[in-house]
Design a protein that fits this description.
Layout: H1 2-15, H2 18-41, E1 45-50, E2 55-57, E3 61-70, E4 76-84, E5 94-98, E6 103-111, E7 116-120, E8 122-128, E9 135-140, E10 144-149, E11 174-175, E12 181-187, H3 199-205, E13 209-214, E14 221-225, E15 234-235, E16 238-239, H4 240-257, E17 262-267, E18 271-277, H5 280-292, H6 301-308, E19 317-322, H7 330-338, E20 342-348, H8 360-368, E21 372-376, H9 382-385, H10 392-396, H11 406-413
Helix pairs in contact: 1-2, 4-5, 6-7
Length: 414
């Protein structure tokens, strides 16, 4: 249109013909009407966006209700309303038109494909004139933060030995201190504290009876996620980093469902250590931390484990999630075992995600240290992968030495 207007203007003032003057004025009028139309379409609008949550989960939808009200007497048409977000998936827009004093409300849904902290809530209204010459935009509302937490898969068949879960035939662990769980009642012996006396049972038996305590499920469980830079492989969202976060989120959710105090530690872009707790609010904090963490850590996982030792005590359980094929961190786990911590490892197979290295050396070192190990490969069902330690049938069989090789164990697990 600009080139056409320049050409017509050149011939208009160069030749002086009446036709070119009329054509030139018609083009100016057309441009003026189109610009005024597009500009007036954006005046007198009230836009609101209502949300019922400030946090979503991968695999769910970002839901909201948009309301646009025309506060003027001028009809409006050729309007497009869309929410402005930095989510990986574009928010769907909607074309609308209004008569005077009309209001329209509709629901918007955006599929959540990736965890993280994003900005949503700003609405963009695009106006066009009937001739399609002008396209003006106007933004309403201020962007708000929105957290997308990782998906937490259900783990109904989770191995009871993983993170010290109570099994169907729960075994008690006697504890010298007084706890909330009573294991049994026995006769009073010299030296027993009077605080241990079970008075109702004493009255019934007509003899002093004392309570014996156990830890029950009060032992604290830790989930440690290795987010060191350089050990992860693959392209997001299908890579070892996202798989590790999904495993951690699933474990944490399952432990909290069982009312087990669970803590989380990560050596990512910012070192994160959260003490064990079993409250729903604590679960929300852990999921938000998993949503923000990135595999940009500079501290080796073995150093991170040694730094975590002051937070651990006897009878704590620790589950390490890592794709690392090195063996430097295995002695750190062995040191925790000598401290009384029950340790297990969830290895993510980097080779299945296109990585050049594998975890053969790590598996051999873990088997030599007799540490329960679970292997998660790309596309594998997580509940099945965590059902039993990798190579358990091989450990209990007659195989020994190099027969416990990485390829042999992986083939047996498959």
């Amino acid at each position: 249109m600009v080139i056409l207007l320049a050409v017509v203007g050149f011939y208009t003032f160069g030749t002086g013909f009446t036709f070119f003057f009329r054509f030139f004025y018609a083009l100016l009028l057309l441009l003026g009407i189109g610009l005024v139309w597009a500009w007036l379409n954006l005046r007198g609008l009230d836009v609101t966006l209502r949300r019922i949550a400030t946090r979503g989960q991968v695999g769910g939808y970002l839901e909201g209700w948009v309301q646009v009200v025309n506060r003027t007497r001028i009809p409006k048409s050729w309007l497009e309303v869309v929410e402005v977000t930095d989510l990986p998936v574009e928010s769907p827009g909607r074309g609308v038109a209004f008569i005077r004093d009309q209001s329209r409300t509709w629901k918007i849904e955006t599929y959540l494909t990736r965890r993280g902290v994003f900005h949503t809530g700003q609405v963009e209204v695009v106006s066009q004139d009937p001739f399609g010459l002008f396209r003006l935009k106007r933004h309403f509302l201020q962007p708000q933060g929105y957290i997308v937490v990782p998906a937490a898969l259900t783990l109904p068949d989770l191995d009871p030995r993983l993170a010290g879960l109570p099994s169907e035939s729960r075994t008690t662990r006697h504890w010298d201190n007084i706890t909330t769980d009573v294991a049994s009642v026995r006769e009073y012996a010299a030296g027993d504290s009077f605080r241990r006396i079970h008075w109702p049972y004493t009255a019934r038996m007509n003899s002093l009876m004392v309570k014996e305590f156990d830890m029950g499920i009060s032992a604290e469980a830790w989930v440690v996620l290795d987010m060191q830079q350089g050990v992860h492989f693959g392209e997001p969202p299908d890579n070892t980093e996202e798989t590790g976060v999904t495993v951690a989120a699933s474990l944490v959710t399952r432990l909290v469902e069982l009312s087990l105090p669970v803590g989380l530690a990560m050596d990512g872009n910012n070192d994160y250590v959260s003490r064990p707790d079993s409250s729903p609010e604590h679960l929300g904090r852990l999921m938000e931390a998993l949503a923000e963490v990135r595999a940009e850590g500079l501290i080796p996982i073995e150093r991170f484990l040694y730094d975590l030792r002051p937070n651990l005590s006897r009878f704590n359980t620790l589950t390490l999630i890592t794709p690392s094929g090195r063996t430097d961190w295995v002695p750190a786990l062995s040191a925790l075992r000598r401290q009384g911590v029950s340790v297990s490892v969830v290895l993510i197979d980097p080779k299945s995600f296109g990585g050049a290295s594998d975890v053969e050396e790590s598996l051999d070192a873990l088997f030599q240290a007799d540490i329960a190990t679970y292997l998660v490969s790309r596309g594998q069902d997580l509940n099945q992968a965590l059902h039993a330690p990798l190579g358990m049938d091989l450990r209990e069989g007659t195989l020994g030495g190099r027969d416990r090789s990485y390829s042999r164990i992986r083939d047996a697990a498959a």
